[in-house]
Structure formats: C-alpha cells, structure tokens
C-alpha cells in the first residue's frame, strides 16, 4: 500500500504536465498566428485580451503538477488577468507598466517552473518537448512586454522603417515581431533599437535565446543517451 501511493502521485503528476504543456503550446501558437490579423480589426483589442487570458490560464495549468507551485501561480495569475482586463476596459485606470509588469513577473515564474521540470525530467517524451518549445515562445513573449513598456514611455527608443515612410509606434504586433526576430537572431533591420535600454534588452534577448537552445540541446542529449544505452543493453541480453 505504501508503494502504491507514491506511484499514483507520480502518474497524476505526469498526466497534469502532459495535458497542460500541450495545451499551453497550442494556446501560444494560436495567439502568435492570430495576432497579425486581429490587431487592425474592429474588436482586435478585445480578441487580443481574450487570447492573452487563454495563454495566461494555460500557463498557470502548466505548473499544476505540484500544489505549492500551483498555489504560487494562482496568486500571480489573478492580479495579472485582472490588470489586463482592467487596462482593456478602463485604459486610464491601470498604467501600461502595471499590467505589463504583472505579465512579466507571471511569465517569468512560469518559465522558471517549466525549465526546472525539464531539467529534472528523467526521459525525453512529448511532454518534455512541448514544455521546451513553450519556454522558447514564452521567452519571446516576456521580452515583448518589456519592449512595449520601453516603447510606451520612450517612443523614440525604436526606429521603425516602413515602405510608406510613415512613422510607426511600438504596437503589440511590432513588439512581438521584433522580440522573436531578436530571440532567433534574425534581425531584419526594419525595427532598430535606438536607446541604450532598448539596445540592452535586444542583445540580452539574443544571448538568452542562444544560451537556452545550447543548454536545452545538451540536456535533451544527456537524457536521451542513458535511455538509448539501456535499450541497447536490454536488446543484447
């Protein structure tokens, strides 16, 4: 009986992670795919807020394997969702720094929690792969919020080139586009960080993206190698 209880807890923990990480990845992909098309639509701001809420809730579920971590995620999630909807419904009531800052703190906690799960995983499976991809997307989202804060308080922090030559501001899509361009080190050059803060954020994101990929690959290889060696030993015997 004593050996059955830990086994049940382990199975339940595995299922929560598998369910949550896959759904988190789907929510993130949906948000990224929809953002370019909804920003200029009539109800674009509302749809963006709904999609962000979906991502935030999915991220909270993604760390639900442990009660202590889940409680902490809920504590951070509630004010984050409240700040986002308050900013949408009553823009003058909540400053951009407040609701974006809440998003940064919450997403940062989620990234740390999921990364810890990956580092502690004993084997590579679908949940580990989904969690790893989700972290990469969440890192880009984390910097998106930071660029929006900088762009709001310092409009001249970024130079945005367009074919029409009309000046543009750091909108949600522009921040998202620039963030993932920097994270993947593509750097198309149509959005250029000018201020020192913007430049610092850009090169820090590029370094984070490269280091994460390097660390992730080494970790996945280290988990895959023992499993392969064990399978070879069993087949030879």
How far apart the termini lie comes to 33 Å
Structural class: mainly alpha
Write out the strand line-up for the largest beta sheet, numbering strands in chain order: 1-2
Tell me the total number of β-strands: 2
Topology:
Blueprint: H1 4-38, H2 44-61, H3 67-89, H4 96-120, H5 126-153, E1 158-160, H6 172-183, E2 191-193, H7 196-236
Structure write-up:
This protein is an all-alpha fold and 237 residues long. Helices cover 77% and strands 3% of the residues. The chain has 7 helices and 2 strands. It has a two-stranded antiparallel ribbon with strand order 1-2. Helix 1 runs antiparallel to helix 2, helix 2 (44-61) packs antiparallel against helix 3 (67-89) and helix 5 packs antiparallel against helix 7. The longest helix is centred in the C-terminal third of the chain and has 41 residues, at 196-236. The two termini are 33 Å apart. Residues 1-17 have low confidence and may be disordered.
Question: Summed up, what is this model?
Answer:
The protein has helices at residues 4-38, 44-61, 67-89, 96-120, 126-153, 172-183, 196-236; strands spanning 158-160, 191-193.
Can you tag this structure with a few keywords?
single chain; mainly alpha; 237 residues; disordered N terminus; 77% helix; two-stranded antiparallel sheet
